[in-house]
# Entry
Amino acid sequence: MIRIETNVDINRQVTAFERDKKLAFVGSGEGMAYTADMNFESTGGGTRVNYKFTVQVSGLMKLLEPLLAGQVRKEEEGELKKLKQLLEA
# Structure
């Protein structure tokens, strides 16, 4: 497992919120910027979450992009699993 620790401060801002339907936000820090969109859809017995996360890197972070992509994907999947557990508790 490769873990990349950074001390980058990230500024986040909610850009859209519709209760039970949508949450979107943007974030930026040194050498990176991202957008995240979560759309919620009722499926009879539960809720489907459609999640899109886009990261743009620059500067020295660009050199780490191949490693960061896999790590970010893995961490986001873990966060979504935690969210699911909390919501179903």
